[in-house]
Amino acid sequence: MQDVAEFVLSPEQAVDRLEALHDAACAALRRALARFVETGVPPDAAERAAFRYPELRVRWEPRGAVPFTRRAWARFPAPGIYATTVTQPGDFRLYLLDQLRPLAEEFGAVISVGPSEQEIPYPYVMEGGDELKLGEVSAAELARHFPTPMLSAVGDEVADGAWEFGEGRPRPLALFDAVRVDYSLKRLQHYMGTDWRAVQPWILLTNYQRYVEQFVRWSLAELATPGGQYDRLVLPGGALVRRGDATAAAEATVAAAPWSRFQMPAYHLLRADGSAGVSIVNIGVGPSNAKNVTDHLAVLRPHCWLMIGHCGGLRQSQQIGDYVLAHGYLRRDQILDELVPPEVPVPALAEVQVALQEAAARVTGDRGEALKRRLRTGTVVTYDDRNWELRWSQERRRINIARAVAVDMESGTLAAQGYRLRVPYGTLLCVSDKPLHGEIKLPGAASAFYQRAVGEHLSIGIAAIDLLRGDLAALHSRKLRSFDEPPFR
């Protein structure tokens, strides 16, 4: 990249230049691919040098008193140069400006942009269907002449605290560089069945399709409400339901959506004013799925993800249909033990806890002791083994020591991922059975429970999001950030 002192840019100018460089690089790569498919002529070294991500650099050399801020992000841990490569800057424009403006205005940081040394892998410039045009050319042929995805270049060293400072090297400006982001954007489309651009910053994660069905019913009702705040629903497969669509047509569009083709089908309700809407993702069952989807959702830098699903109640006093607000996690999922060792506490976030409890009170109409009878706060134990009951004699003591009140297979993983990847998180579960007390999920009782509980539970999750919208500065908590964090949240 050119000398950081050569082009001093405002945040707006910096994002404009990022867009221009990224667009030019992608266009050059697409042209070279099309020519190679048509004529067999590969790009030469000079052409290939154009297939590079733009790099964003920020230099901070404090003079005088260092500005004080209680904000958890857009601040510098030390003087120096910070850098990251950037992809899709047009779609990340608002996020980039939110991060850059305080650095420039409060800290006087110098911003510059130029080409990086990081090549753009050719699959990342292709939209859905474009890959069919390469059908006559083998992947091996393309790999000889074009940049390809290399797993050795994709990692979470910054997020996991494994990045080491080296003299003469810039510090990381963000948790994820461009190639890591592009990798996840493609995976999101594969798993969810929708364009990643449709994913909203407020995310509900569930382990039951019935929650998704209830979300769709609620979304259609919102779209049919005169003067409502939402204007369209994006479905798996890419179809849209828009405000003003006839009821029968909207329902037919939803029914035709091929959600079952996708491993983690997602639905996205977008707001009419362009501000943050709500997405719901059926992540399925188990900690592996929970880690997988959040590894990829994290690159979008969402405001929050909330787990709303079912759990087994572990206390005799609990009733089927009661709620559990997790304030701690006994992590027996094992999937993150190397990245976030089990002895590392995963804290509850006060802002999320308060919002979930207040939302429960508003939706149920219960307050005080009446609410306490229905909503239990406590530790949730998360297993990787659905049949953990078969080793009850081994697990009994650990559950007792933890004072656990509920058991599931996703919540601890999702909380640990939020902690690890700096995304605010929370868990509100609904007791669907009591495995230790003989109240198992028989088909008839389960069906009645689902009909009664799912709608109310979903409403609580949505109400909590509405409560959290108003104070993003507090939500993006310092609890999630270490002493040597990158400036970008």
From TrEMBL:
Entry's Gene Ontology cellular component terms: cytosol
Keyword Ion transport appears in the UniProt entry: no
Superkingdom to which the source organism belongs: Bacteria
Primary gene name: amn
Enzyme category, top tier: hydrolase
NCBIfam families linked to this entry: AMP-nucleosdse, PRK08292.1
One GO MF term: AMP nucleosidase activity
Keywords (A to Z) from UniProt: Glycosidase, Hydrolase
GO biological process terms held by the UniProt record: AMP salvage; nucleoside metabolic process
Protein name stated in the entry: AMP nucleosidase
